[in-house]
């Protein structure tokens, strides 16, 4: 067998093995979906699609669930490689109780793709401000952010401090951080160097045993299988460029200077004791530096608290709503 034949044979075997692994993973994923036993299927809770045009022309997908008159509007901002479906349980729990706005952050979900130069925390805050201007032009606002969504809220406090206390009356920061993540998060310390050297192979490789990887790094030790599977399904929908374009954002992130402004709104910080991406000490730091903030620590909770601790998260948001009634 000559060299060319050996290379072709090896490559063919590699591809065949990869295809087989992908098919097996797909079958296992389908079986887990059948086992979920959800009353309301994940990904099925939506309202009419709206489009908001960002300052650089990117189309931001949003949805509005109308509620009773004279209630605040709760605006939900999801995290990195997520979609607005991360609020599945909160959307069901709060429907018909309060007006809600959901958005897919740029390059995520149904929103348009951002140029890499605008995949930045200040642009995400600017997008959020544009959504507020167009979809919540009046009345009190409660901002709810998970992970990267919480960071966008903090940056908005720096860019538009006049909003906080005047229109933004409540804030919920869930499994998020104001900075020092490259040093303080074991999962990000391992992930970020890999993402920086990623190649097109990453698109394929992400699907290999993704369920086990996400269970290990994304959720707590007692997370239900359906919550791991919902996370897995959502994250695998995100194109690899979302991983690559936004990863530099976390390296030098520093939002400490925004926290006094955030504290002009009634603030709840929620963190999980087993969160490896934004460890609980980051939530404690936020609660200590945001004036008047309340900390809710979820025992054994991982990073995906909107799923894992959905009832506690929904109750925390409801408590902010009740304060404004």
Descriptive account of the structure:
The protein is of the alpha/beta class and 325 residues long. The protein folds into two domains: 1-35; 42-323, Rossmann fold (3-Layer(aba) Sandwich). Helices cover 45% and strands 14% of the residues. It has an eight-stranded mixed sheet with strand order 1-2-4-3-5-6-7-8, with helices on both faces. Strand 1 (50-53) and strand 2 form a beta hairpin.
List the helices and strands and how they pair.
Blueprint: H1 3-35, E1 50-53, E2 59-65, E3 73-77, H2 88-94, E4 99-103, H3 121-135, E5 141-146, H4 148-159, E6 168-174, H5 181-184, H6 186-196, H7 201-205, H8 210-218, H9 225-236, H10 240-246, H11 259-262, E7 266-272, H12 280-289, E8 294-298, H13 305-308, H14 310-323
Taking strands numbered 1, 2, ... along the chain, how are they ordered across the largest sheet?
1-2-4-3-5-6-7-8
Tell me, what's the shape?
Answer: globular
Average of per-residue pLDDT values: 86
Give the CATH superfamily of the largest domain. Answer: Alpha/Beta hydrolase fold, catalytic domain
Uncertain regions: pLDDT < 50 for 5+ in a row? 2-24
Distance between the termini: 79 Å
Strand content is 5-15%
Q: Count the DSSP helices.
A: 14
Rg, rounded, reads: 20 Å
The total beta strand count reads 8
CATH architecture of the largest domain: 3-Layer(aba) Sandwich
Helices and strands, in order, run as: HEEEHEHEHEHHHHHHHEHEHH
**Total tally of structural domains:** 2
Kindly identify the CATH topology of the largest domain.
Answer: Rossmann fold
**How would you characterize the largest beta sheet?**
8 strands, mixed
- Work out the helicity level: 40-55%
Structural class, by secondary structure, is alpha/beta
CATH class placement of the largest domain = Alpha Beta
Protein name: Pimeloyl-ACP methyl ester carboxylesterase
Pfam families: Abhydrolase_6
InterPro entries: AB_hydrolase_1 (IPR000073), AB_hydrolase_fold (IPR029058)
Organism: Aeromicrobium panaciterrae
């Amino acid at each position: 067998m000559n060299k060319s034949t050996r290379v072709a044979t090896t490559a063919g075997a590699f591809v065949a093995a990869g295809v087989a692994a992908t098919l097996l993973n797909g079958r296992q994923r389908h079986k887990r979906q059948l086992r979920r036993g959800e009353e309301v299927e994940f990904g099925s809770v939506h309202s009419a699609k709206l489009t908001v045009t960002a300052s650089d022309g990117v189309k931001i997908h949003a949805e509005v669930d109308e509620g009773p008159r004279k209630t605040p509007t709760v605006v939900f901002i999801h995290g990195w490689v997520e979609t607005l479906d991360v609020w599945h349980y909160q959307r069901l729990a709060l429907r018909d109780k309060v007006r809600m706005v959901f958005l897919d952050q740029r390059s995520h979900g149904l929103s348009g793709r951002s140029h890499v130069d605008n995949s930045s925390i200040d642009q995400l805050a600017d997008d959020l401000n544009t959504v507020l201007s167009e979809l919540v032009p009046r009345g009190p606002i409660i901002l709810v952010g998970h992970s990267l969504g919480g960071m966008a809220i903090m940056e908005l406090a720096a860019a538009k401090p006049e909003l906080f206390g005047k229109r933004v009356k409540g804030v919920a920061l869930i499994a998020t951080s104001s900075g020092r993540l490259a040093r303080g998060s074991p999962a990000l310390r391992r992930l970020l160097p890999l993402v920086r050297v990623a190649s097109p192979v990453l698109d394929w490789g992400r699907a290999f045993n993704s369920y086990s990887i996400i269970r290990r790094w994304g959720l707590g030790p007692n997370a239900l299988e359906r919550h791991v599977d919902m996370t897995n399904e959502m994250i695998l929908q995100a194109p690899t460029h979302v991983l690559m374009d936004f990863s530099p954002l976390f390296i030098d992130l520093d939002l400490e200077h925004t926290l006094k402004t955030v504290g002009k709104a009634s603030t709840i910080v929620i963190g999980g004791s087993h969160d490896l991406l934004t460890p609980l000490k980051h939530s404690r730091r936020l609660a200590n530096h945001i004036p008047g903030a309340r900390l809710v620590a979820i025992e054994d909770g991982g990073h995906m608290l909107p799923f894992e601790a959905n009832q506690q998260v929904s109750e925390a948001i409801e408590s902010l709503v009740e304060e404004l009634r």
